[in-house]
Specification:
Number of domains: 2
Number of strands: 2
Shape: flat
Helix content: over 70%
Strand order of the largest sheet: 1-2
CATH topology of the largest domain: MetI-like fold
Distance between the termini: 53 Å
Number of helices: 14
CATH class of the largest domain: Mainly Alpha
CATH superfamily of the largest domain: MetI-like
């Protein structure tokens, strides 16, 4: 056997041994990574997976206050609860979903517009910018129940700040029953939710604005671009991932709002502000129709799950483009 053949054979064997070591190291690293992620996996299975599965099983049975503690009497009814939610004359599930969509879209639209304007404002350096930026976070830091009580007093018929201001500006002649009429009650809870959500939109968009290189703006200024052209042709396209994140997360957070509406109107008057979340609560803990309440919650979960999948797909497509 020639020396060249021996040398080639030695190189081959050494390469095989290196690959073997690499595989062992990769396997070892994989095991270590699994061990590190195991606590999170256990947490998700116990506190997310098990309740979700239990809620799904509950929605397929007929469980109410009479047989709640008697598993043997809980009849399996399949999808009957879901069908009844949309066909029963006493059910307001369809109206609750429509109200939820109106509430969500109206809130997100104004939250995003105002939050984007504030983000553009606070991206500039001026005296007191840090103070005012921190002050705008108060509405986000307040507990939602406190904010709900605050706006309940603001929109009160007698002595409410909203009525006093509008009457002093001669926009109305007599106090408006904001929380006692369907259309105005929806306006009231939307305004309250907008006030709460503006800082969330502002901070995420402000973070996105910090990623825009300053030299791009300088080049656009040299080329003669005005502020409107710079906004629509540079700023918005560059922070598009941040905008999509804000809109998607805002939809998820707003669609499942419960405490604000419950404190202000409890879904009234006459189901005018009934949302999917408040209706699921009423079915389970006021009417004690636990299976229908679980079915209503699962419908809410399904809608948010679809939105979440859309968000993940969007993020993955953006990463592939980059």
């Amino acid at each position: 056997m020639t020396s060249a053949t021996l040398t080639a054979k030695e190189h081959t064997q050494s390469g095989i041994s290196i690959l073997g070591i690499g595989k062992r190291k990769l396997t070892s690293q994989g095991k270590m990574g699994f061990l590190f992620s195991l606590p999170a996996l256990i947490y998700m299975l116990v506190f997310v997976g098990y309740p979700t599965l239990s809620n799904l099983i509950l929605s397929l049975k007929n469980v109410n206050v009479y047989n709640f503690s008697k598993p043997g009497m809980q009849e399996f009814v399949g999808l009957s609860n879901y069908v009844e939610l949309f066909t029963d004359a006493n059910s307001v599930m369809s109206k609750a979903i429509v109200n939820t969509l109106i509430f969500t879209v109206a809130s997100i639209f104004f939250q995003f517009i105002i939050g984007f304007v504030l983000a553009l404002l606070f991206s500039k350096k001026f005296p007191g910018s840090s103070f005012f930026r921190g002050a705008t976070m108060i509405s986000w830091l307040l507990p939602v129940t406190v904010a709900g009580l605050l706006f309940k007093f603001i929109f009160a018929t007698s002595g409410g700040i909203a009525n006093q201001m509008l009457m002093s500006m001669h926009l109305i002649d007599s106090p408006v029953d904001w929380l006692l009429k369907g259309n105005t009650a929806m306006v009231a809870i939307v305004v309250a939710n907008i006030w709460i959500g503006i800082p969330f939109n502002m901070m995420l968009l402000l973070t996105g604005l910090t990623t825009v290189p300053a030299d791009i703006y300088e080049s656009a200024r040299i080329d003669g671009a005005n502020k409107i052209q710079t906004l629509f042709r540079i700023t918005i396209p560059v922070i598009k991932p941040a905008i999509m994140s804000v809109l998607t997360l805002g939809f998820v957070y707003t669609f499942k709002v419960f405490d604000l509406v419950w404190v202000m109107t409890k879904g009234g008057p006459i189901n005018a502000t009934e949302l999917a979340s408040t209706y699921a609560y009423k079915l389970s803990f006021e009417q004690f129709e636990f299976s229908k309440g679980a079915a209503s919650a699962n419908i809410l979960f399904l809608i948010l799950f679809v939105v979440g999948m859309f968000y993940i797909k969007l993020i993955n497509s953006e990463e592939e483009v980059m």
